Model the fold of this input.
Amino acid sequence: MTLEQIREAIAERVSRASDLNATVKFVVDGDKVVHVDATQKPPVISTEDKPADCTVRVSGSTFSDIISGNSSAAMAYMFGKIKIEGNMSIALAISRIL
Done:
C-alpha cells in the first residue's frame, strides 16, 4: 500500500474512535507514517512523523489484511505482527480504528 492509501484507510476509520482523545502514530513498513491527533475535533490526520501518545508498528501486508477484514488487529498483536509503544490503554481503543 502507498502512504496515501494508508492515510485514507485510517482517516476513513478514525470516526469510529471519536472518544479517543489522544495522539496515535501508525508506522507501516518502517517508513510510512500516519499521525492521528484525536485531541482535536475533528481529528487531524497527517503523514508527519510527530510524537504520539501511542505508536503502532506494523508491516504493510499485515495492515492490508486488517483493513480488508482478513485478519483482526487483536490476533495480529497476539502473534507479534503488531508492535505497540507507549500507552497501552490507548492501544486498546485503537482496535476500533482498525
